[in-house]
Amino acid sequence: MNALLAVLWKDLLTEWRSRDRAVAMLLFSMLMVVIFHFSLPGGATTATRAYAPGLLWVAFVFSALLGLGRSFAIELENDAIERLARAPVDRGWVLLGKTLANLVILAFVQAITVCVFALVFEMDLTPIALELAGVVALGSLGLCSVGTFFAAVAVRTRFREVMLPLLALPFYTPVLIAASRATNSLFETGAVSFEPIQFLIVTDASYLIASFILSDFILDE
Amino acid sequence: MTAVIARNLEKRFGRTIGLDGIDLDIPTGSTTAILGPNGAGKSTLLRLIAGLARPSGGSLEVGGQPAHGRTARARVGFIGHATGLYPELTARENLIFAARLRGVGDATKRIETQLAEAGLTRAADRRTGEFSRGMAQRLSIAVGLIDDPEIVLLDEPFTGLDGMASNRLVERLKGLRRRNRTLVLVSHDVALAAQLADAAVVLRRGRIAHRESGDPLDPKILENAYSAASNLGVS
Hints:
The complex is a heterodimer of chains A (about 220) and B (about 240). With about 220 residues, chain A is mainly α. Chain A is built from 9 helices and no strands. Chain A is globular and about 55 Å long. Chain B contains 8 helices and 10 strands. The N and C termini of chain B lie far apart (about 35 Å). The model of chain B has no long low-confidence stretch (mean pLDDT about 90). Chains A and B meet through helix 1 and helix 5 of A and helix 2 and helix 3 of B.
């Protein structure tokens, strides 16, 4: 647990000082929102708002991949990854610390993205803000757990920028389907349907447990 | 007591053989130099002892435990080629992180001691990205020793250090030796290895080509063994 908190503290402090990941992710997701706004016929109409959950998650998933790719790349600088691998703890705690740090950074980007999205598509999301935050958090936990795991796998490969999406996207599919469905029901009815939430909880738990168990192998040379 | 025991240790990288049938006993409190030309397997052996990689064959125990396990990792400090530092963090923050990661109890006092011994007290709150190579290397050594490990692995630790810093490191290593710490030193510098170590192995193409022990070691014998392993033909 100490190792988890140490990695979380270190990753967030490093990001606070450099801001390289958050800024890149934010710019990317903003660009996507703007492109969606101008590419959809009729701008912010009721019909285009029906696409809103899918568009929102497309912006989330690609900005997440952008940030996750960097999360282990910073460990390669000066070979700091060796220190993580040599920590006298279950390596799963190290991976979990990085997963949580990625989740915090992604949450910051998502909060701003949702605000801009609501503004651009003229949607009042304040009545469902809490429920939306819950759905986004559950979906993002799935993205970050499996994404951090594959970022660690891809970081030592020659084509890590290409490898991460190739490895992660198939595992993202169930998370994205459930998260989009939950977001859609929230936008349409103002309430979250239980089925996709249940699916998200099970998927998140499976991904977290699997990455914790397998972490011992991925941090090896 | 034996700190490190390797039996028929092998490491392969695909079809390339890194280590081939290494048998090695490193007694507790000894200083062992691992010498050899580039590609001989020195760093590979050190990294296996550090638990950074798994053997392809044979066995390797550190303090009676498999080298790859977390119990063994807790006993070993590793100081490698690279500094392992985070440039966005200050020297003190790098030490805090290392201490937390390795579960050091009284971290504040230990961190201040390490900063003082590295001669970095005045630079403690500067980001390490601004450090010179020598300062970064000194801090890297302090980070490697943050939890006062029983076994200290050093992979070319003098790289990037000027004369004064090298002397300081030599004194530090001698201090560790006096405190019965086990040191394993990988180096190209035979004279320095002879000065510091009481045992030496010379590797050649993943095998032990020569073993030597004695306090002090005879630099001439070591030089000859090193030259033979390097195929230089020096008598």
